[in-house]
Amino acid sequence: MVIDKRPQSWLFIASNATPGAHRFDFLPWGVYRRKNGLNCAWFNQLSRSAKIFRFEAGKSTNLSWNQVDMSVSEYSDENSILREDLTFPYRLLKPANASGDCLFVLHGSGVDETTMLPLAMQIAPRSVIVAARGRIRQEDGFRWFERITPTSFEQASIHAETAAYAQFTTEAARQHGLHLQRATFLGYSNGANVVSSLMLLHPGLVKQAALLRAMPVLDNPPTSDLSGTRVLIVAGAADQTYGPFAPTLVTLFSERGAEVDARIVAAGHEFGDADAAIVRQWLAAPTPVA
């Protein structure tokens, strides 16, 4: 495979499809240019209230609608490929100035991996990002394991899909030269619940995890030894579904020896800039020596 070494550049559109819900479209800048910019039907369908971000060489820039068609940049389509050579479909994003750290990101239910990319780049613009897609269909998107109710889940599905993701993680790291000791797992909602299950069912694999709007999902969580594991739990103050479960999750990990940092943001179940700022700050903090 020939890897394009030119600077990578992508365009992201964040639009409000319904009140309180965000849709993210992921498009390489060069592909956008080939579609003739604002004249293409794909772009004209968007509301002018949509936020536009351009990501290039590890930096995210908020663009106005007038700025978006002003210049042409070199790009690589390599980072936009949906890869299907492992147990989960995934995208691998490698910034030109990669630091050696990596970020495994897991999306929420009913969407796909692209919804987490702007947040991941905002948090760690120099990290290699591995964004996998859940394998369970839900409406027009995907989820990670079967649910019975919004707060009750099929246990066999949790165990099977978590084991499959554990395999995916080790294979992706080996195939792409990533170091799991320098990896952070960032999950949102259903994706955060997979990460929490991954820590409990496969202890030692995850060293750092940031869980946004998570809840305990295992009916009988094992008494795993999580000493040496850092966990950030961010709950939404107005999240009436998952928010009440945050203290239980904090206790669950603390009792197993994890170093837990719990935060609350002025939000509902959705994530936003406040979450990005907290995770960035948490990642920048010195890691205690064991």
Structure description:
This protein is α/β, with parallel strands linked by helices. The protein is built from seven helices and 15 strands. It has helices spanning 29-34, 41-44, 117-123, 155-176, 190-201, 246-254, 273-284; strands at 9-18, 21-28, 51-56, 59-63, 90-93, 102-106, 128-132, 136-138, 141-143, 147-149, 152-153, 183-188, 208-212, 230-236, 259-265. The strands form four sheets. It has a seven-stranded mixed beta sheet, with helices on both faces. A hairpin with a 2-residue loop joins strand 3 (51-56) and strand 4. Helix 3 (117-123) crosses helix 7 (273-284) and helix 4 (155-176) crosses helix 5 (190-201). The protein starts with 8 loop residues before the first strand and ends in a 6-residue tail after the last helix. Residues 1-10, 13-49 and 65-77 have low confidence and may be disordered.
Structural class, from secondary structure content?
A: alpha/beta
**Termini gap:** 41 Å
Count of alpha and pi helical runs: 7
Per DSSP E runs of 2 or more residues, the count of β-strands stands at 15
SSE pattern: EEHHEEEEHEEEEEHEHEEHEH
| Major β-sheet annotation | 7 strands, mixed
Rg, Cα atoms, Å: 19 Å
Uncertain segments of ≥5 residues (pLDDT<50)?
1-10, 13-49, 65-77
Keywords:
25% helix; disordered N terminus; four-stranded antiparallel sheet; alpha/beta; 290 residues; seven-stranded mixed sheet; 7 helices
